[in-house]
What we know:
Number of strands: 16
Number of helices: 11
Shape: globular
Distance between the termini: 23 Å
Strand content: 15-25%
Largest sheet: 6 strands, mixed
Radius of gyration: 24 Å
Order of helices and strands: EEHEEEHHEEEEHEEEHHHHHHEEEEH
Amino acid sequence: xxxxxxxxxxHPWLLTESKNTHLxxxxxxxxxxxxxxxxxxxxxxxxxxxxxxDGTGSTASVTVKWDGSPAVFCGIDPQDGRFFVGTKSIFAxxxxxxxxxxxxxxxxxxxxELAEKLxxxxxxxxxxxxxxxxxxxxxxxxxxxxxxxxxxxxxxVFTPNTITYAVPTNTGIxxxxxxxxxxxIFHTSYEGPDIANLKASYGVNTASFTPHKDVWFDDATxxxxxxVASLTPQEDSHITKMLFAATQTLEKVGKAKxxxxxxxxxxxxxxxxxxxxxxxxxxxxxxxxxxxxxxxxYYTDIHMKDIxxxxxxxxxxxxxxxxxxxxxxxxxxxxxxxxxxxxxAVYKRIIEMKMFLINKLSKVDSIGxxxxxxxxxxxxxxxxxxxxxxxxGAVKLVDRLEFSRTNFMKRK
Length: 412
């Protein structure tokens, strides 16, 4: 996943939450926030277009989120000055800060693989002399890196999560990885008087860290030395037309109608689970009318399953109430069909613009990304991108169909 700060802001890297946690998909802003969410999504796309077309905003920062695992927190505990490592459990009600091997054994004896990763982190990360508290994605520990021939090159390869990374052995990065016993990409820094009150900021200044041969590390800065991610005039014109079409549709439907429809609680709480189900099936919105019909089938199926579980069966008062809800929803969709199809048309257009940007940005990678298959290695895109807004908000730009398919293959 790749991170973009897309507008100049008084406090770069400002987050809206105290921890680096869940982010929403760009297109889902319209379901979350109605008309305002749709305009925000369009603003994100427009800002990225400007950045890639003419470099507007020289202070804009670009960082990369690698597909590492687990997420590791490490640094100096403000309360006692001791170095620690840990997972997101450092934010638990009873924080699990691992300052010794005994701490790791105590907290993670039931998770031996994770415990071993933390042992290695505790052994090697203090060598970097990290002054504050940072979060990173663990890419490999000793024994995780192997060699393979990919596209004719001898490469070091490692698969921390769903994506396999490959780097030629005869490059500078390859030589560093070949010597290292642990690899990590740092992407978030934290400040605060104690662990419970830490505030997160995207970005880590690794310039102050002490390099060590045992640790291959980097910050998450997106490095494009080739310019291939820049929009050509033709590409800029194409996405500009898409933005105009999305804005036109949004204005035609209108704020009042959009907010009234998306303010329907039964619809708003059901639509995103339905979208996620469609993604898992490998389906995306192509026809708003078909999407609404499929949604109604999904909604009906949910209530029919509830009815089947009720005592007294389909003739019980509770069952009749459920059936009435289904009829009410069918009528509601019929009454609001024009508004709903307009909303879904905007939603579809936002996805199309998002995919355009993802496909463009994915062309730049200093290390190759692959999906390991039974037939070898298949070239794949990075996990996705995250855009940071001028107000400190952030959204994901992810190819949800590809990411879902990759996770499915991993489970198989």
